[in-house]
Amino acid sequence: MPGQHKILVIDDEQLMRDGCERILSKNGLSVIQAENGEAGLAVLDKAPDEIDLILLDLMMPGMSGFEVLEKIRTLDEDLLVIVVTGYATVESAVEAMKKGAYDFIAKPFTPDQLRIVVKRALERRQLQREADFLRLERERSLRDVATEKSRVKTIINCIGDGMIVCDRDSCVVLANPAASRMLAIPETHLLGKFVSQSGLPGELSKTMEESLRAGDSPYTSISQELAVGGKQEIFLRAHTAPVRNDLGEIMGVVTVLQDISYLKELDKMKSEFIAMVAHELRAPIATVEQQLAVILGNMAGELNEKQEQLIARAKERTKGLLVLIKDLLDLSKIEAGKMIQYREPMSLAEVIPRVVEVMKADAAQKDIEIAFVPPPTNSIIHADRNSMEAVFNNLISNAIKFTPAGGQITISLGEQTGFVKAIVTDTGIGIKSEDIPRIFDKFYRVKSSATRQIVGTGLGLSIVKNIVEAHHGSISVQSEEGKGTTFSVLLPKEAAPAGCAENGWDS
Amino acid sequence: MGSLLHIAPRSGRLPGRRVLLKAGRMTMGARILVVDDDPDMVEATTIILKSKGYDVSAAFGGIEGLEKAKAERPALIVLDVMMPDKDGYEVCKELKADPALCDIPVLLLTAVVSHISTTRYSHRMGMETEADDYVDKPVEPAELVKRIETLLSRQ
Fold it and tell me: N or C: which end of chain B has fewer CB within 10 A?
């Protein structure tokens, strides 16, 4: 038994008290003696919680055992009392039991009899304590659950993110104030309504209902952006996920709404800032380059060889700056979703030759031959013309940059199961296999002795990838160092075939 | 390598506009009005054109450009797009709406777009404006002169 149990022996006979102490202390129990009722009650009064069991003699001079028993019961009704009866009458024992004694033992008793009675009582005391403990524990847990519920409710009601929960019948069972504020729908209009009839934005209620039907499919959460009208349009990001029980069955759907208007605003400001800076930079740099071109053309006096060399270098630098600005503008337009606005049916077979024509002068300077292999059939894609030009401009100008003099660049067009496939191949320096995964990253440039002299912004391929992916296409690259590089662009074919010959470019 | 298509030279002209090349026509000495709010750009353009023997007159804004066009009736106008008082598209529209000025060829000079996106303008703006040709700033002097000669020889 844990701890040392304390037993109070109340008996007027010194011999009895000592005898009990001797017997019980052998069992590791500690005994406190009291020679009469008053003394016993005084001990209890001083330390009521320390006594585990009382051995009480019924027949004592002064305060009788029954009186002491009654007092003890009023003091602590859980205290166990074993009455010791001098002349073993069943009546007094029964009466004592009626008054709340736990057990009785008749004098004279053997040490073993005492031990058995005491042991039983102490076990009972232990059980009682454990039961008390469990009862308290349970009460506390119940209280905790209740507190937890209200705590969670308070948290959900206080958080800045909106939260909507619907049950498996797509009935809204929870909507916090933030959600109703963001959606401008009163909470009472949401609660208890079907998702589809609660006034939630159509895309959102559709997503929630789809999530309910997600079944066993492993998809976890859907994220979407919503523009919510009203006097002032706000932008929300909604994360929707099914709520499952232990068995993995869908019990409902939870949607968390975040107000991302300020992010949108920041993003717009960033794009506008970049565009503004780029425009502001572009005009003076264009003027400087124009002035350099005039000087270089000997129109402001004859240049000596050194001067010409320096001015030519300066002009190369301004050219590089203008390309950087153009790329920044393109990228900020793509990121703002403005680059790809005018989609129309078109054929790459007319876009690519135009780009090739523009690039020819640059290629000729390096003695590189550019060839376009026309496709067997004229496939139509649905795309933004300017973006497509930017794609092939970047790919071809890259090919020119990374192909040594005397090389060859070939652009071919074909088809591949529902896609139009454009291939740009060069006989250039190639790309190291470890660089290939990163070449589409913003501002990434392959660094080697071979590329040191090549100017670029590291934005071109990032722009290309962005555009191609915005058109639901893909781009891949194959390269062998020293042999050349091939970029393959796949773009979805437009379903309805249409003639595109009379688009106005060919006269 | 199979049959390779080599691309025919691009012309900046607009769809449907007829090209009437009158070979040997003298364009030297013709008056050209340069309209640009950036004086340094005006100076550079002027030097290029003067070096080819053109008579150059300058205006430093859209409104001034229109006035000078009316007063001087130049043989050709080199017109900047981005100008604070009246932009190039607006000036061009007014020129083409004026029966007395509508036959003066207009070469639009833009710093807005890069060389490849020129087609954006040929496509979007070219249709909307009635400029006869367009070229990006900065432009190689030889290219500028070539474009001007082409426009003048159409007349």
Answer: N
Q: Which DSSP letter does residue A196 get?
A: G
Check whether A385 has a pLDDT greater than 90: no
Strands A250-259 and A162-167: antiparallel
With H, G, I as helix, E, B as strand and everything else as coil, classify residue A249. coil
Mind telling me how many Å the CA of A292 is from chain B's nearest CA? Answer: 9
Are A300 and B123 inside 8 Å of each other by CB? no
Find out whether B143 and A292 touch, Cβ atoms under 8 Å.
Answer: no
Mean pLDDT of the A347-373 span = 89
Q: Are A385 and A346 in contact (CB under 8 A)?
A: yes
Strand B76-80 vs strand B106-110: parallel, antiparallel, or unpaired? Answer: parallel
pLDDT digits (tens, 9 = 90+) for A445-473: 777 776 766 766 777 888 898 888 888 88
**Which residue among B40, B114, B124 sits closest to A291, beta carbon to beta carbon?**
B40
Name chain B contacts of A390, Cβ cutoff 8 Å: 116-117
CB of A395 closer than 8 Å to CB of A472: no
Of A293, A297, A355, which is closest to B116 when you measure between CB atoms? A355
Q: What's the predicted TM-score (pTM) here?
A: 0.50
Nearest C-alpha in A relative to B42: A287
Which of A276, A282, A285, A287 to mutate against chain B (most B CBs within 10 Å)? Answer: A287
3-state secondary structure of B79: strand
Phi, psi of A153 (to 5 degrees): -60, -40
CB contact under 8 A, A371 and B45: no
| Interatomic CA distance for residues B147 and B107, integer angstroms | 8
**Cβ pairs A/B, distance under 8 A:** 96
C-beta of residue A237 within 8 angstroms of C-beta of residue A224: yes
pLDDT tens digits along A151-204: 888 899 999 999 999 999 999 999 999 999 898 888 888 889 998 888 888 888
Q: How far apart are the C-alpha atoms of A24 and A121, rounded to whole Å?
A: 13
Name every residue whose Cβ is closer than 8 Å to that of residue A483 and which is 6 or more positions away in sequence. A427, A430
Whole-Å CA distances, B107 to A65, A99, A406, B14: 126, 120, 36, 12
Helical H segments across A76-186, by residue range: 90-98, 111-158, 177-183
pLDDT one-digit tens code per residue, B113-132: 543 344 444 444 444 567 88
**pLDDT over 90 (residue A357):** no
By Cβ distance, the residue of A286, A318, A323 closest to B111 is: A286
Distance, CA of B148 to CA of B98 (rounded, Å): 22
d(C-alpha B127, C-alpha B14), whole Å = 8
The ipTM value here is: 0.76
Q: Check CB contact under 8 Å for A293 and B141.
A: yes
Q: Which residues of chain A have a CB within 8 Å of the CB of B45?
A: 290
For the record, the structure tokens of A231 come out as: 């006097």
CA distance A476 to A474: 7
d(CA A45, CA B105): 118
Burial class (CB in 10 A: 0-12, 13-18, 19+), A277: middle
Cβ-defined contacts of A501-506 (< 8 Å, 24+): A501/A378, A503/A346, A503/A347, A503/A350, A504/B15, A504/B16, A505/A350, A505/A354, A505/B15, A506/A350
